[in-house]
Amino acid sequence: MQEYKRLTIILFFLFFCVFIRVDAKINDLPLLGKAIYVDPGHGGRDPGALYKDIEEADINLEISKHLVKKLEEKGAIVYIIRDGDYDLSRPNSYNIKRSDLQNRVKLINNSNIDLYLSIHLNTYSSSNWKGAQVFYDDINNNNKKLAENIQASFKKMLNSNRKIKEISTYYMYRHIKVPGALLEVGFLTNPNERHLLKTENYQKKICDSIVEGVINYYNS
Ligand SMILES: [Zn+2]
Hints:
Blueprint lengths: L1 H27 L6 E6 L9 E2 L2 E2 H18 L3 E4 L15 H14 L5 E8 L10 E4 L6 H16 L6 E2 L4 H4 L5 E8 L3 H7 L2 H20 L1
Parallel strand pairs: 1-4, 1-5, 5-8, 6-7
Antiparallel strand pairs: 2-3, 6-8
Helix pairs in contact: 2-7, 4-7
């Protein structure tokens, strides 16, 4: 009987250890099972916003590449719309911008993904404007919730005072059926933010805040 008792205690202990370890592993991978498309804005013949020799498209791509890694570290399967300096328009298309956006929409809608994140930089006529901001289209019911969660992270981790904004006139976001958002992660026209946006440290900080917002969106 004594032996039986001891065996029961050992088995219980082993079960407890395995359970805790599995639980810790799942907690490390909160985005396990999620497929996400990262969409670096512009590229190729479309440099996006410009400030002297700085092209928005280049910074969008740098940030997007960090974002892919960080989302993968949390367990997600991640795709990227472009991984170099090119656009997605058809050769010989007379409207390069429209063709580029149409192909981005097609890629995202045909990919059976859970979420998309478009990365862009903002500009404004006043150099005082700053801060990361989330834009969303109400075509998908989850878009507002996603926008709120990422904006809350921008506030907490990047000190952004901007608010989420609904858009319905942007061709691309009006046509994507899965949840997602347009993230304008900073202003190229603000001297301080422009400097930060070029540094790897700040780019990674932006990505950490996006990842936290996405995790909170799934947990809320
Ligand atoms: Zn842009």
